[in-house]
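ERR on first pass: missing label on line 2. Operator R.T. fixed the label and resubmitted. Corrected input:
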Amino acid sequence: MAVYKRGYRRYAGPLTGRWTRFLVLPRYAWRRLYQQRLVLLLTMLAFLWPLLCAGFIYLTNHAELLQGLDREFREFIQVDGRFFSIFMYVQAGFAVFIAALAGPGLIAPDLANNALPLYFSRPLTRWNYALARLTVLVGMLSVVTWIPGLILFGLQVGLAGGSWFRANWTLGAGMVVGFFVWLLILSLVAMASSAYVKWRVVAGAVSLAFFFILSGVAAMIDNVLRVTWGHIIDPAWAVNQVWRALLGVTPTEGPSAGASAWALAALVLLLVLVIERKLRPVEIVT
Amino acid sequence: MASEPRDRPSSAPEALRTVHRSFSEGGSEPAERRARERVGGSGGAKPPGVIFEEVSKFYGEVLGVNRVTLNIPPGITSLVGPNGSGKTTLMNLMTGLIHPDHGRILMRGISPRDPETLMRITGYATQYDTAPRWATGFTFITTGLLLFGYPRAEAEAKAWKALERLSLTEAANRKVAGYSKGMRQRVRLAQAIAHDPDVLVLDEPLNGLDPLVRAETIALFRTWASEGKHVILSSHVLQEVDLISDQVVLIANGMIIAEGTIRTVREEIQEHPSQYLVRCRDASGVASRLFSEDHITEIRLSEDRLGLLVMTRDREQFAQALGRIALNGHRIDAVVPADENVDALYEYLIGGE
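pass 2 clean. output:
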């Protein structure tokens, strides 16, 4: 029988914060993801449009450069809600492709390795783990979405002055909120496909197909039934409708921004349930 | 595993079921109270056990474990049972990865429903190669420690110490994906011990280890056990279980068939006569004398005529009979129990199922 003697002293020093500990996982993941050339290339390409937009902002704030242009055209090219909604639409497209590239490697390898019991035999809950994986994608996508968006907004404020900011600060806030809604949906779709499809290429394709198929089905419903509410099942359309409301842009024909927001909330809930079902420390085969 | 109702009769023979004696016999006070008393009790020296009280776990209709009652003391405990018997379910319950449908568990007085506290005293090594392909042995262990909340310097120091204990320092900066099977097994053990846990739950920890490393690992288990830790492991290699275990838990069809030291479990099995190997010069003479005893059921002479395999229903009477025979001038060189091992227990209690 064992002799009870202790030859060691347990660590009794300070610990890192309980609620920030999950950030250990994204740190390693980011490093690995940016080592992928395609991810890096796509990220760099995603900066082209913000650069063009920055040039546009510069032009619109320098009246002397626009002297020769038609007055109506000069009034048309304004930095307003419409400008930011176009900016967001393009960047959102890049985000879809980056999420499809980066997302599949998040959960599938851990499931294939049976690594979840190991993660969860740390002081790390399933929600911590999911949050860590979500943070990886949201962090990566932030680099090409709301961060350049805020830089553009700041540039416009810098050039147009405080009065412009006081009149248009909701544009900046709406852009950040709108992007976060989109990033949440993209990340959850990528995580769900990663949790269910172990082959990375297929998981990426599933992520992309999710948006294209729903868009196609929505269009089919509208055309076959001669209605406009079919778009509600198209997340890209629904989020665009929400953005328009946030940025004060005229909505497109179809369900309202409120209905679109509810549809997106339902989608988020569904995706969370789908992921929750798969993120279990023990595979239960019944 | 087949679907079975909760209160279905055990498929083990009725008589054998008596082997399993509940730890709680002799008292009905809650396990938690008893556990806490052990922590701060009068002696204070003996750590509380790993306690299962009427624990059942079903996966839908499929039985995981049923009405398991255990009190595992510190030391090396082996969970032994066929595939699908519920060993890994027990381990997952201990580590809080799944929760019981019924009953409760206390790991040294801590409920698995409190993972933040539990995981600080528990180290778990699963049977799978869980390290990510990109990770080196060092980063694999360090990452785990960072998740425990250790500052980076402390995590790296602990990771290094764990790698040292498992003789992996030379391979520390190589990717785990390039490790041999034995090295991957060791790195799994290293991550389990890195945070100095009191309870080690190890699923098939000796698989894939070469004899030398296996011996070193067993020595480590003994060291941990001597420090008052719980070392709970599952193994299919019964000879090893025999060699290293302070106690065994035999499990089949999700039910505990027997628990305790190998000797006490063997003594409980009345249906099978005890077997002894007797080495002596005059094997035939000793055999003829033993045959006159009522409790002897069978004797087999070895081919070299220098040994006997004796089967007896009464161990004490057998010992007395041997004493008498020796006093009568027969030289007895050695008497060794032949079925006081996990192999025999497994055969008697589970093998027939």
